[in-house]
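Here is one chain, start to finish.
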Amino acid sequence: MGRVFIAGSINMDVVATADRHPKVGETVAGRQVLYFPGGKGANQAVAASRLGAQTTLVGRLGKDAFGAELRTFLGAQGIDLGSVRDADTHTGTAIITVAASDNTIVVVPGSNAQVSADDVADVPLTRGDVAVSQFEIPLPTIAAFFARARDAGATTVLNPAPARTMSSELLALVDILVLNETELGFFADTELSDSDEAARIIDVARKLQAHTSQTICVTLGKRGVLALAGHEEFAVPGRAVKAVDTTGAGDCFVGALAAQLASGAALRTALTFANAAASISVQRMGAGPSMPTATEVAAVLGAS
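Its structure:
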């Protein structure tokens, strides 16, 4: 049984709910304001840990009220926080507006911008482990983390969101790339939508593939997932559910995928499991708190 190591962001999500999103320059009345633990790294770590993986989070927190609250919450999820260090700035914060089932997000990095190569230098990765990261911490830190994982024989999983330009050297260090169709279009410099034919999406993914053994998983919401695993192509169908809050759904998917891979599951099995986990998370408010347990996912898969 491998372990999951996640180098990534830790945020406090400040969520305002409203009947609709304001237009530019407009003010609308909201219904309530909520505070949820979040950040893509933390969300993925919570998902992996709740789903049974031995999970270590690598990151930084400010020495403020949000930082203290987040440290308490994450520790209660069974996550190893020995590699979460203090920062000399405020804790990362995300300002989220939720209207119907859609959301808009403004992220203020804060302490996440201080996660450095030194923070990942002593992570005890070994063969069979899974190293995960996203784009809410500095890219040189991710490259250093993945280089260390590659040397140790661990599997690297990158969720390149929010999308920003990355080097070919970083992409080459990725074993499994998990992204949505918008992000795929950004990296491939091609317009894509979730209604595009599967063949077109796979064709674009193939052009992005850095090496023949690299796997690219394209998440398509209710349509499920398309995967290009080396030369093999396959689809995992989506699940029709009533979404309440999609914040953190992609992170749930990535954390669940990492947990499954660490347990030795085959890719198709792991993607099916991750897809079911994400479908549960969107039926709840918040990011970190919405992550399901293995029992809940097993119940969903057993009923399908």
